[in-house]
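Hey all, quick one. A colleague (J.T.) asked me to put the adenosine-5'-triphosphate job into the tracker so the inputs and the structure tokens live in one place instead of scattered across chat threads. No bug as far as I know, just bookkeeping. Sequence used:
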Amino acid sequence: MDTFLQQIINGLTLGSVYAIVALGYTMVYGIIQLINFAHGEVVMIGAMVAYSTIVALSGGTGLPPALVLASGVAAAIPVCMAVGYALERVAYRPLRHAPRLAPLITAIGLSIILQHLALIVWSRNPLPYPQIIATVTYQITATAGGATITNVQIAIIGGSLATMALLLFLVYRTKLGIAMRAVAQNQQVAGLMGIDINRVISLTFVIGAGLAAIAGVMVGSYYGIAHYQMGFILGLKAFSAAVLGGIGNLGGAMLGGLLLGIIEALGAGYVGDLTNLCNLSGWSTALAQRCAVDSNLTLFGSNYQDVFAFLVLIAVLVFRPSGLLGERVSDRA
Amino acid sequence: MTAAAPSPDVPATGGAHVLLAARGITKRFGGVQALSDVGFTINHGEIYGLIGPNGAGKTSLFNVLTGIYAPDGGEFVFDGNPLMNMKPNEVARRGIARTFQNIRLFGNLSALENVMIGRHVRTRAGVVGAIVRNAATRAEERAIHERAYELLEYVGVAAHANRFAKHLAYGDQRRLEIARALATEPKLLALDEPAAGMNATETASLKRLLAAIRGDGVTILLIEHDMKLVMSICDRVLVLDYGKKIAEGSAADVQKDPKVIAAYLGGEISLELPAR
Amino acid sequence: MPGLIDARHRKRLAWAGVVVVAIVLAILPFALAQVGTAWVRITNTAILYVFLALGLNIVVGFAGLLDLGYIAFYAVGAYVYALLASPHFNLHLPFWIILPIGAALACVFGVLLGTPTLKLRGDYLAIVTLGFGEIIRIFLNNLARPVNITNGPQGIAQIDPVRIGDINFATTQQVLGVAVTGPIKYYYLLLLLMIAVVAINVRLQDSRIGRAWEAVREDEVAARAMGINTRNIKLLAFAMGASFGGVAGGMFSAIQGFISPESFGLVESVMVLAMVVLGGMGNVWGVILGAILLSFVPEILRYTVEPAQKAIFGRLLLEPEVIRMLLFGFALVLMMLFRPAGIVPSSVRKRELESRRA
Ligand SMILES: Nc1ncnc2c1ncn2[C@@H]1O[C@H](COP(=O)(O)OP(=O)(O)OP(=O)(O)O)[C@@H](O)[C@H]1O
Ligand SMILES: [Mg+2]
């Protein structure tokens, strides 16, 4: 049972990061019905900027580690917001009435550009995230070697919950939030009511990018590594999470993110055992002999972890394209 | 070709051969009851009008008929066979072609190509034929080309055959959509507000075109807000209001119906008498 | 009748043009070999990309389906070739058997991926295909255990070259006293394949099927209302594109002699997409030009920018690889923003301009 508990904890940690990134996809989708392909790259930029800040400040300035980390986040957020704003201005606004393929292709181009600009600035190699706050591991179960949780995991889960609460407050309790929801409902009418649509759309991108910055720092600290291509897979997974929850739906993105994290962790934790051919030893003596030498005959090991998100994505799109919490939408004839 | 006899439970009006019978058609969009229990029959060779105030459910009826939306209840019988759960392409193959209220041409293709695409459903060439270009494929391609050009001439936009559909004038786009629909060799041509945005001259020539199409043996189902046109060309008219059928009959009878007058007085369109 | 003479004159000119192009293409590899065999190889890669781009053009350009996992089909073709013609399994089947197998398997993958996803809206399809490309790469990287199928990240080496009778495409042979190197032989083989795929593209575009694809691209609802079975017609485009990818992959294996999962990443998918976009999606000649440009410009940059940087800054600031990727990125963005119809106008547009002048 301990593997199970442990994987749930790991899954929740990753899942809360997915949730925050998924929120960025879902907000933009909700408001202009477009997938912001370059969103994963914004996460990467966030991780990179925070990395540089932390490295710069932790070198003998004597600042307390928590402050250094906070400065990293504080530096990443405005940079990412600027990137998010630029993305909207360059890739989406001029093409808002173009065929759907056009903004998608522009966004792919921008992702490639962002990736390689990051490569130029931060090098091709994976950057080791400085461990400025020592990792503390807490035992959850009484038995030795049982499930554990680290202070980093607690910080990530707690931090994302706080971020999500803040976002919900913003969307449901502020004037800007009302304007965002109005534009999402009906752009024309919102415009007639005196809402500056362009400003609201820009702000949506900016807020999503701010979330991405926070997520970037979390991923960097969790895996202890930042890389110019880290945004690609992460973005794909977060998008899958948004679709799983029902794209365009904030609650859906959170639920989808957490679920996807757990599915992935459980999948990675169990797929090796489940697909171990030695399970079938009872059927074949040859197999049993082979397994006596090496009991690890797994068909699919945990290195297939990245596959689960896509399988979930495809399954959701096929069986319930509106996601868990989304409403069915159809093109009007 | 012998047409299938209408199924026994379809009432044949006045002994004429029924082409389309609708029974109990119902469609909801969330809270909106777009169509409730609508029934009617259209006879072969008729021009059948479908009118009603904005939002009455006319376009929704087209969408349900042509398989774009599945109805929540009711059924259509077309040419003796039920149209149940049919996809739009199957409906087109059966012989119902339509135009769209908000014009849906293939904008970045030429006018001629638009009509040639209409021939798709009545032609056969596949990938292999396209690549090897055997005699049969070449002959078919020539026939498609010729027929498409004829249709462009028929509706009067042949002069623009090589221009992008999106660059055509509004009235020409509406005519092009009709040509494209005719290319599928429909038995029933369903037109959604073909005169919308046309001036009086264009409407007059549209009226001649519709008469000619009917003369060629194609039955027409016409949604139109231009009452003058409806009253002067339709054999019978069905009036929808809030998704319900409120009247059906000859143009002259319908426009005297107090329920129809009430529905329109509540709306923004005045019921004009046909010009004599 | 000046019009008639004019037409005949124009036709003769067109034929003269074809002959000139044919002669140039025929002697090109020998001319390039004078500069360096590397340039023959670069040209071969360019032709392979033309082939790939035209395959993707059917999917993206004609049918309007944004397939971002196209390179996965290329990978399938490449691995089929590598597994069936290398010491890895000790199989050495001839290339004319393997290429069709690779094409067929890629086609099967295309249909498997397309069947559930093609009813989705275009942007979802883009993401799903992107994910599919990643899945294939993950499998290629990991299918080395417990049974070694793909040899994992190390890839497969010593892949057989193409052999036709006595002609071995990896060695130099004397033909009529002229030394014909391996790359030059591959050049002619690739040229033949490319002419075939160009012809197929051109003929398909101007056919009942091609028009149906374009109808789906322009307006799916209207296409269905016109009686087009949009699901089947999209699947057809997807499957055909995949098969072309499979054939190209097989050729890639044979020419390189070594493949590994690294060659089939997102970068390659984006590159091929950039070629299609640069040329103007759906415009066959434009796509050819786009593929040639985006294959050669980075190589030219490699030979100019690299020494230039060393001369000016004393070291390499920007690796050519990075410049190449930035080039693709900017090509995608700038084309979409400023010339969505591509660098050369399509035939329809040209006809339209003519008819307007008339
Ligand atoms: N796809 C849809 N989703 C939600 N509601 C819809 C949809 N299509 C139609 N409706 C609603 O159904 C009702 C009937 O609409 P419909 O378009 O059929 O009216 P109409 O008679 O064609 O009106 P008009 O004369 O303005 O074209 C309207 O209230 C409309 O808002
Ligand atoms: Mg309508």
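Adding what we noticed when we looked at it: Residues 329-333 of chain A have pLDDT under 50 and may be disordered. Chain A has one domain: 2-129+148-319.
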